[in-house]
Design a protein that fits this description.
Layout lengths: L1 H11 L9 E9 L5 E8 L2 E9 L5 E7 L5 E8 L2 E7 L4 E6 L3 H4 L1 E4 L1 H29 L5 H27 L4 H9 L10 H11 L16 H11 L8 H19 L3 H17 L3 H10 L14 H11 L10 E3 L5 E3 L7 E7 L4 H15 L6 E7 L4 H11 L4 E4 L7 H5 L7 E5 L5 E3 L4 H10 L4
Parallel strand pairs: 1-7, 11-12, 12-13
Antiparallel strand pairs: 1-4, 2-3, 2-5, 5-6, 7-8, 9-10, 11-14, 14-15
Helix pairs in contact: 1-3, 1-4, 3-4, 3-5, 8-9, 8-10, 9-10, 10-11
Length: about 450
């Protein structure tokens, strides 16, 4: 692998960026006759379709990339989990791959950028595996043994050799998008002599040393997202409880966002990416911490119109545990207005759901069973549907015999209630006390049972 990269340096020469009317992405996907394939761009981990093309009987395809297409990472996709990622940097790209095994069969026939990217990617993966194995030797093998010394030397050599190759690639291809991706991915050099107990703290402290936060062009790839995930992994431990994980992740986001604060665009991307990710997994303490300590750096540019990110952060502060639940009003099944604050009950369970959500429909019968088992009834349920179809909503209520308070604006995730509670997925639940203060935000039926039991409601 190392010889291939050195040969690439000698033969390929600098990445050329000749001016021309358009560029071609073409090639053959063996085993994909007369099918549609798609070209997608990247914005972090999110993809958007740019174009589509139809293969011929041999699986040959072709896309035209106008000069207006910005350099970045792009994805050629032809089915679920069937894709290959490619770097476009104003050069023609020609590939050959197999429809059923794109990762193992990909051949780059034309494109210096992609020869660099996929060759170095393979080297990086191999070296990571080697280093993980060698770490076991360094951690547990007697240090006075000759084999230990051999392993330590190889551990240092692998890191230095990879850094040297990357430096050579950078010198030979100064405009390479691929090289910049791998520059971002590189982790600090860890001497083999560093004791195991100091290795992780050293990585945490120096992970962003030398990172070029000014490279906003990499936002058109998943590079910054991958860098963030790799750093968070340093703080994760499967032995931790969720509360312990949240404590560690708060340390991680503080380090990461502090380092990224030198560039507003990268900072905003990472903040938004982290908020969305932690919200998805309901890491409430981390989200609240970020909402209270960080803000969209562009939010003050137009004080009369908050950015979507800043609005999201402000809302998270309002729906944190211990805060009064934001009030809202929506029509019930008969069109009569129902206001959250008007519900007279010792406790209120607010459930955001939709008839199209499989997890919701699986959970509802179990919730119904414990709701109807109350004697006396101490909590009421307000089930807020995120449906857009009145027929589907009412049918689900009828089928599941939902006897609690049901309401919906029939505007999906654009409804006012979903907006003020930052609802991006269902089911989402909030348990409120008599004064409508948020007591808990269970994310599953099992957590709901635990929360109700803690309040003496089960």
């Amino acid at each position: 692998m190392m010889k291939r990269l050195i040969a690439l340096l000698i033969l390929a020469g600098p990445v050329l960026m000749h001016a021309q009317p358009a560029y071609r992405l073409h090639g053959e996907i063996t085993g994909l006759p007369r099918k549609t394939c798609y070209l997608l761009n990247f914005s972090g981990e999110k993809n958007s379709v740019l174009d589509s093309a139809r293969t011929d009987t041999a699986g040959t395809f072709s896309f035209t990339l106008p000069t207006s297409v910005a350099p970045g990472m792009y994805r050629l996709s032809w089915g679920k989990d069937k894709f290959t990622d490619l770097v476009f940097n104003r050069e023609n790209i020609r590939i050959l791959t197999m429809a059923e095994a794109p990762a193992d069969s990909l051949r780059i026939l034309e494109s210096t950028e992609n020869k660099i990217y996929h060759s170095f990617l393979a080297l990086d993966r191999t070296n990571k595996l080697k280093l993980e194995l060698l770490q076991q030797v360094l951690d547990y093998y007697p240090s006075h043994d000759d084999f230990y010394q051999l392993a330590a030397g190889e551990y240092d050599h692998i890191q230095k050799a990879q850094a040297s190759i990357l430096d050579s690639l950078s010198a030979a291809h100064p405009g390479s998008y691929s090289v910049r991706i791998f520059d971002l991915y590189q982790t600090p050099y860890i001497p083999a002599s560093l004791p195991p107990e100091f290795r992780l703290p050293y990585l945490k402290q120096h992970y962003f040393d030398g990172v070029d936060f000014s490279d906003t062009a990499l936002l058109r790839s998943n590079a910054w997202a991958n860098k963030a995930i790799s750093y968070l992994a340093l703080y994760s431990d499967n032995r931790f409880t969720q509360k312990q994980l949240e404590t560690e992740f708060i340390k991680a986001v503080t380090q990461m966002l502090s380092a990224a604060s030198v560039n507003p665009e990268v900072f905003k991307f990472l903040l938004d990416y982290l908020v969305s990710g932690f919200d998805k997994y309901h890491f409430e303490d981390v989200i609240t911490y970020m909402a209270e300590n960080f803000q969209d750096p562009f939010a003050c540019e137009n004080p009369d119109r908050k950015s979507a990110l800043q609005k999201k952060l402000d809302t998270f502060k309002k729906i944190a545990i211990g805060q009064p639940a934001p009030d809202f009003e929506l029509p019930d099944t008969k069109g009569k207005p129902v206001k959250l604050s008007s519900i007279q009950s010792e406790f209120t369970l607010v459930i955001f759901w939709t008839s199209e959500c499989g997890h919701c429909m699986e959970m509802m019968p179990r919730v119904k069973a414990i709701y109807e088992a109350q004697k006396p009834r101490r909590y009421e349920i307000l089930a807020v549907s995120i449906d857009t179809s009145r027929t589907a909503w009412l049918q689900a209520i009828k089928d599941e015999k939902m006897t609690w308070i049901n309401g919906s604006e029939l505007k999906g995730f654009d409804s006012q209630s979903a907006d003020v509670y930052n609802i991006y997925a269902t089911p989402t639940m909030f348990l409120l006390d008599r004064n409508k203060k948020i007591l808990a935000k269970p994310i599953s039926y099992r957590e709901l049972e635990t929360v109700l039991r803690e309040q003496g409601l089960l």
